Inverse folding.
């Protein structure tokens, strides 16, 4: 177990919890609000961006545990958030949060390993596992910030 891994896990866990709290605050009705600057993501609603964000945490967790699926363009995957409920998002976020737990258990050697190019977004054959996860979390931060802005609008 590495202190660096624990920090990455704390960042991921903090982001997930921030999304959970935000969604609880906006409620089901707030899921239909537009998410400024995210019109190209699905239908541009809070629900669509929250679904994309949740799906990305699930994909990060799969990458951490070695169960990563082939890369897809997640931005194109979520076309319509009709039918997305707060309960569904909360359940998936809770599962993603649990699935991210192994991140805290990674060793320094695992963090310093260089995954093959294309194995995950930001994996180019030169970046370390830690750099990839940190980049993914920075990318996720943009989605969380957009959700926060929409929630306070």
């Amino acid at each position: 177990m590495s202190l660096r891994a624990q920090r990455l896990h704390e960042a991921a866990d903090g982001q997930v919890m921030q999304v959970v709290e935000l969604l609880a605050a906006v409620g089901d009705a707030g899921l239909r609000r537009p998410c400024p600057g995210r019109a190209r993501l699905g239908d541009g609603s809070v629900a669509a961006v929250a679904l994309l964000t949740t799906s990305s945490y699930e994909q990060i967790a799969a990458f951490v545990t070695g169960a990563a699926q082939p890369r897809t363009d997640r931005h194109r995957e979520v076309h319509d958030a009709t039918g997305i409920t707060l309960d569904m998002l909360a359940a998936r976020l809770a599962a993603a949060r649990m699935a991210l737990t192994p991140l805290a258990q990674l060793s320094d050697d695992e963090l310093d390993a260089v995954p093959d190019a294309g194995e995950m977004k930001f994996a180019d054959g030169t970046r370390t596992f830690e750099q990839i996860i940190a980049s993914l979390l920075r990318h996720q931060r943009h989605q969380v910030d957009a959700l926060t802005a929409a929630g306070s609008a």
Observations:
- Helices lie at 3-30, 46-65, 74-77, 86-99, 108-112, 129-151.
- The domain at 3-151 is CATH 1.20.120.450 (Four Helix Bundle (Hemerythrin (Met), subunit A)).
